[in-house]
Structure formats: structure tokens, C-alpha cells
Amino acid sequence: MFRILTFVLSSFILCVPAMAQNNWPSSPITLIVPYAPGGYSDTRMRLLARKLTDKLGQPVVVENKAGAGGVIGTNIIAKASPDGYTIGCGSFAPLAINPTLMKSIPYDAATDLMPVILLETSPLILSVSSQLPVKNLAELIALAKKDPNKLTYGSSGQGGAHHLSGEMLEAEAKIELTHVPYKGGAPAATDLMAGHLAMMFEMGYAALPSIKADKIRPIAVTSPKRLTALPNVPTMNEAGLPGFEAYNWQGIVVPAKTPNSIVLRLNKAINEILQDPDMVKAISDGASQAAGGSPEAFGKFIKSERDKWAKVIKTANITAE
User: Fold this and answer.
1) Are 41 and 70 in the same domain?
2) Would 160 be classed as within a structural domain?
3) What is the pLDDT of residues 23-43, one digit of tens each?
4) CB 64: neighbour CB atoms within 10 A?
5) Are the CB atoms for 157 and 236 separated by under 8 Å?
6) Contact by Cβ (8 Å): 30, 61
7) Residue 273 per-residue DSSP state
8) Rounded distance between C-alpha atoms, residue 62 and residue 172, angstroms
9) Mean per-residue pLDDT, 195-218
10) CB neighbours of 43 closer than 8 A, spacing ≥ 6?
11) Which pTM value belongs to this model?
């Protein structure tokens, strides 16, 4: 009798996790955004949360956990219970840059998080001051070679996408530029418009208004395909630097050991949401490009990004401020 009772109890205990997975989601889901409210990532994740709420039949509630370049929020995602009720925004800096740039972070980007889906890639636009006498990348490189370190480029700070793209341009084009870090992209963009900087790699959504107002001159984009919003602006590859790609990007990640059935259901739902007209418009209006695909593809993308930027950071001897 005791053996029978033990067998029944053991079977019940083993069935509970499976039942929980089959019933997922049966309560609200928290979506952690490791950045402040109102920013680019926050805006996109709030739209995704509304669409996921409709798809999954449970509220998806956004919580902002900003700080330390995304490390604080990403650590919360990594250390959460792997039950599918905490998901998070996994992005460029916390997953691909900070593991090399920072001396120590409280999570292992390669093992503590499980990729679900790449939501979008956001290429940067290389623009020059309207006062700079260059019209294309070849002329810019020629001018930089003529006067090493004379041309300046701005960034939102040490180790960000703007900065690392500039470092990669120096390495690939074999030129020497002067990096001018700012406390945020906005003041750098303002100085570019004023002619105090020669050039800058900017996110599309930030650069487009200035480009449309003819305050700066775009000469190339860092994606393999031209942007819909700027069909006449060549890619870096077309402009003469083969293989030059740089993105800010974001997707969805969950704590490691989250059941595969939940990961696949999330992946399917978000792939469908990426076809939704509201999401298509939001991504296009931000001069970004929708991604999608499998969890495995996102995992490979993260690794390739981490490896690529680790090389740039180490070669240029960049450290966190």
C-alpha cells in the first residue's frame, strides 16, 4: 500500500510541471525592459506587450528596470524563475557588448538567458555635417587619410553603437578619426547639425528628421540592404566597405531552463505579431527592419554579434567609462 501511495505521489509531482506548461499562460506575464520609460526600446516593447496580450489571452505587463547600460534589468530577467511568466527585452549592449566591455557583470550572457526571437535590427546611418565637403564614403575616407585624426565623430558615450561603428570604420577603412563622446546621442546630433562634428553614426529614427530637413547629409547605411526610408542612400557595402554591418537590435529572451514548449509558443506568437500592420508600420517608421525567425537563429545571431564586437573592443582597447 505504501509503495502504491509513493508511486501515485511521485507521478503527481512529475505531472505538475507538465500541466503547468500545458496551461501556460494562466496568469499575467511580466515583460522586463532594461531601459527607462519613453525610450526606443520601451516604446517598441509596450506595443509588443499589447499584441501579446491579445494573442496569449493574459495581460503582458511591462516593467522598466533601467541602469548600468541595461545590466540591471537583464540580470533580473536572467535570475527570474524559468516558468514563462517573466520574459524580457534582450538587446545589443547587455548581450553583445557589456560581456567584453565591462570588467564584470552579474550574469553570463551566453548561459543564463535563452533566446526566443530577434524582433528587429536597427541599422545606423552614417551622416556628415552639411559643411563637410564630401558627398560619399569614398570622399570621406580620402579626406580622413589626407588629414589623420582631424575628422571628428560623435557618440552617445564610450562603447555604444555610435562609438563602436566609428571604431570599425577606422579599422576597415584604415583611417584615423577622433572620437568625441557625449552624455547621450541628442547633444552629439545637435553638434553635428551645427558643424562642430564632422560625422556621426546615428540610429535611423533619430537621424531621419535632421536628414529630411537637410541639416545633415547621409552618405551610407550599415545594413546589407538599403532602408525603405532612404532608398537613395547606399549601404556601406555598396559604398566601398564590403561586409561592414552594424546594428542596434532587440529581441525577446527568457531565463535559461524555461520549458521549450513555452519558448516555441512565444516564438510563434511574436512571428505572427511581426506581420501585424501596427508592428510593421512602427518598425518601418523607425527606419528599422523586422526580423523574426527561430530561437536557434536568434542564438546564433547573438553569438556572432558578441564575437564581432569583442574583436573591435579588444583591438581598440576600449573600456567602460
Assistant:
1) yes
2) yes
3) 999 999 999 999 999 988 999
4) 20
5) no
6) yes
7) H
8) 40
9) 95
10) 282
11) 0.89
